[in-house]
Specification:
This protein is mainly alpha-helical. It is built from 17 helices and no strands.
């Protein structure tokens, strides 16, 4: 394979994360019309997203372990088949329980087959520009609110929520199944872009999975990832409903979600470049602090223009920091067990993501307001920045093996 094929892997990974995570997060667009049509509570519908993240966490760990054994293609093929199937079944659900199981469980399992394995595969293909490459794969998540979410809103307006969800499921099959054929493992030795071999610092340190998961490096990584996602998941999921509650028109409220996605795309590129040049740790800590501040600032907005300003900052920060965790995992633990280790970190992040949607729905149902959601999320975000300060320096091979 030509060395430039690694950029095909990046493009395939970006498309997969866009479709899979875009389909999953589009539940925020379905929330209000589903509640009105079916009479299901917002908390009940939102709990499907909570299930998404819980299952995505367990699935990420399982798929990551399978990736380490058989490679990426079988994993993403299974994910593509399951994703379309889950959306088609959910679109025909006649009870809240059936919807929660189909959308919450199967969509979560399918989405987890793309993120951690494709990120792990990308780190294996790249020695230089690794932060940028991982950020570009993750950028698919930033493109999703500009593509899948407006498409879902248009379908709902033109038809109904069931037709919209069914069509998105079929679209997932059409887009993902051909792209699966492009997914390949890297050659045995991937050379750097300048022709040199990978440096000893990036060689596999020979840790076992058990040693890695018990190490201080993983504990700080996992706790930071958990708190970061717990902080932003609620504001992301309930942003459209919050804007509508503030008097913003529904289609304009969806555009706020799209602005966040566009800003997240730029943020991933910016933070990826900064991570390669300045180091991942200081860039991550700065981004987490900004994220906490902007979440708190949402309490003071009410106009569409104000939402747009904060959406740019919020989208850039939460989008920018997310790919950096995979780079830290690769630097700490090497390529041999990256799928399992990053899958375990993703499991913790998914547990964090699971709190926000359900908490926001419960808070709104109880108080008819989202204020406490944003207050609590901002405090958790500050905690994430504090934990990240404790990141130890990148360990040497000897210290890793002794951990």
């Amino acid at each position: 394979m030509n060395h430039s094929y690694r950029w095909v892997i990046v493009a395939a990974g970006a498309l997969m994360t866009c479709v899979a995570l875009g389909a999953m997060f589009s539940l925020a667009i379905f929330l209000e019309p589903m509640s009105i049509d079916t009479g299901w509570s917002r908390a009940g519908i939102s709990s499907a997203m909570t299930l998404n993240f819980l299952v995505m966490g367990i699935g990420g760990f399982a798929w990551g372990s399978i990736y380490d054994r058989v490679g990426a293609r079988p994993v993403v093929l299974a994910g593509a088949v399951l994703l379309g199937l889950a959306l088609v079944v959910a679109s025909r659900a006649n009870s809240l329980l059936v919807f929660q199981l189909s959308y919450g469980v199967i969509v979560g399992l399918a989405a987890s087959a793309f993120f951690a394995p494709m990120i792990a595969l990308t780190t294996a293909w790249f020695d230089t520009n690794r932060s940028l490459a991982v950020s570009l794969v993750s950028a698919g998540m930033g493109v999703a609110p500009m593509t899948i979410s407006p498409f879902a809103r248009w379908l709902i307006s033109a038809y109904d929520w069931r037709t919209a969800m069914f069509d998105i499921g079929v679209m997932a099959w059409v887009l993902l199944l051909p792209v699966v054929l492009l997914v390949r493992q890297p050659p045995a030795a991937v050379v750097a872009s300048d022709g040199s071999m990978p440096s000893p610092a990036t060689d596999d340190p020979g840790m076992s999975v058990g040693q890695a998961l018990r190490s201080p490096q993983f504990l700080v990584l996992g706790m930071t990832f958990f708190a970061c996602c717990a902080a932003h998941s609620g504001p992301i999921f309930h942003m459209v409903s919050y804007a509508i509650a503030c008097g913003v028109a529904p289609m304009a409220a969806v555009s706020i979600y799209s602005v966040e996605g566009l800003a997240g795309l730029g943020g991933r590129l910016l933070y990826g470049v900064l991570g390669d040049r300045l180091g991942v740790k200081p860039v991550l800590i700065t981004g987490l602090a900004i994220q906490a501040a902007v979440i708190a600032a949402y309490l003071a907005v009410g106009q569409l223009e104000q939402f747009y300003v904060l959406a740019v900052i919020f989208g850039a920060t939460y989008g920018g920091v997310m790919p950096l965790y995979a780079v830290l995992a690769r630097e700490y633990f090497g390529p041999r067990i990256i799928g399992t280790v990053f899958g375990a970190a993703t499991m913790l992040s998914s547990l964090g993501m699971s709190f926000g949607p359900l908490a926001g729905g419960m808070i709104y149902d109880a108080y008819a307001s989202y204020s406490w959601l944003f207050i609590g999320s901002a405090l958790v975000g500050l905690g994430a920045a504090g934990i990240a300060i404790a990141f130890p320096p990148q360990p040497s091979r000897q210290r890793l093996q002794m951990a």
